[in-house]
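Predict fold of Vacuolar protein sorting-associated protein 8 homolog; 566 aa.
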Amino acid sequence: MSESPDARSLLSASSQLNLMEVDAIDDKEFDIPQVDTPPTLESILNELEDEEEPFVLEDTCVLSTDNMDAHSCDTSSLASSDSGDPAHLKRKKRTVDLNATVHGSVLRHSLLKGISAQIVSAADKVDAGLPTAITVSGVIAVGTSHGLALVFDTNQALRLCLGTKTTGAEFGAVSALSINQDCSRLLCGFAKGQITMWDLANGKLLRTITDAHPPGTAILHVKFTDDPTLAVCNDSGGSVFELAFRRVMGMRSCDSRCLFSGSKGEVCCIEPLRAPPDLRDHPITHYSLLAMASLTKILVIGLKPSLKVWMTFPYSKSDPSSVPQLAWQFVPVQKTVNPILAFCKGDTVHFLLVKKEETGTIHVIKQRQLHLSCDIISLSWINSRTLVLVDSHEKLHVVDRPSQEVLETLDLEQVQLVYNSRHFKSLATGGNVSQALALVGEKACYQSVSSYAGQIVYLGTKSAHIMTLRNWRERIDFLLKQEHFVEALSLAWSFHEGTAKAVVGLFGDPVKRKAVVDDKMVEILCQFAENALKKCPEQGKIQVMEQHFHDVIPVLVDYCLLLQRA
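Predicted 3D structure, encoded as tokens:
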């Protein structure tokens, strides 16, 4: 079988490492001892035969047959050609630790420069006020403290500036935003309780709703459901209302219905189940589920065909200042895709699976919980296996849900997250809220985080940031740029074997996946070999150069054997 060009170049590079040009080594610089008569090949072979134990037997307690394969003997032979020092004889074992866990940089953090610049410019030039809320769908909308909503397209160009400073003075700051499924409508909730609906195609004001909930309370959340004629809102009195939009004879109206009264326990977070386009016909979506988080428990209700409480779930004991969090996600489970609700208050995330049997019976099944040693203030799914959490110290944690492993932790301090404390305290309407709700509001940043299609946007006081998962090549290249070749190879091998977490951009078929990763690993090995030649020490003891290549050659050989490219 002929060797591929990649294999030939890799072998060539490895040969250069083992057979360096003689004139490149200076005997004096490397303190090479003089030899009176160089040994012959025959004498070397005879020397091996004369030895009683050419290989040192490993302690059977240490030796693991699980880590041995058809190539391990070849590797041992190469290693045993070194000196008789017992330290060198350890090289007979595979140098590469196949169980090592390397995730690399999982998240790509990008500043939305265009939007950030225009947020600052709008505040300075047209007195738009500071950013207060953000939501993302096919467009990105940013609300301001002076009652305006700035709408940007995917190129970060400002498309619309909705509202005026006059209405801003009357309604107060934008306290909540929501875009419907087809990206044609925007709902704005305000600090003084009003709600407006806008046409995103032409910037026309369609509705101003002033009587959907009791006066004197701020809008904490307003959210569209999958039904474009149905939305829900949550006010600073802790109550939740359904908003049904009607249009009769060209006249638009809105009917409001109380779903939960704050007098029974204040709700401070709501999350309707919204399905992605390919799952709009999922049997669960017909019930228009809504999750609500009060200060003491979680409730899941169905708005259709008639109002029904599906379940309640009390929290375990937590800090009274901890912020309740809710997040829905459709997740593949045993060959079917069903919605899972993630929720928390404090340091423990719970998961509820909702499924409908063929008999028509609905089941809500509690899944394994996730415990973190931090107070969670934001909870988002970035895909069906991966959660992104922010704690009260503004540290962001990327967590693989199946293994419950924290893949990466980032510092969000430079983002300067916008908090919704003023609205939870309802300062624009006189601050008539309970002490318990005001306490939770200290760490509430619901309106500063919005997730959509594998992206999470974070709103800062003067900027907007976006987090996305790096694809598998980016994660490897990120390590290569830092010349972390061993870590890059370990990560690549985990992609090859299908054990990596938060994987983006690889084939699901094992044969195709391995073929693609094989080529990338050969490329890494070549880069590693070339880098080792460039970084070879130019002077010092021979042991220095020996150690330099000892850190490289066994790794190259091991991975060549693993890839069967030797």
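The radius of gyration is 31 Å.
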